[in-house]
Write a structure and sequence with these properties.
Blueprint lengths: L19 E3 L2 E3 L6 E2 L1 H12 L17 E3 L17 E2 L3 E7 L2 E7 L3 E6 L3 E3 L1
Antiparallel strand pairs: 1-2, 2-3, 4-5, 4-9, 6-7, 7-8
Length: 122
Amino acid sequence: MTETPETLPPCPQCSGAYAYEMGALLVCPECGHEWSPAAAETEDAAAGQNVVKDAVGNVLADGDTVTVIKTLKVKGSPSGIKAGTKVRGIRLIENAVDGHDIDCKVDGFGAMQLKSSVVKKA
């Protein structure tokens, strides 16, 4: 893979624009940092993924069990969802609507969407 200097990525350490190829690695002459272009692409792809965190900062994943941390009002229900309710088997939504980034089934209420800011990983 031979790239022209215009297409080489900047240094991930110092953002220097004068990187050059040395074998399979890219080298920054300004700070001396060496990196693999494949590793930089993988990091960029990982950074582009949507990371959903709960109210205390834990990273959530599909299938996790979460606990509701505050009582939620539900339209058409006299009681709502009480704080401490466990919700099992959540699914994360990529294109969140109004901040509702968790799709789940709550016992006694059925399918609904929740905001990650009102749950904590159990």
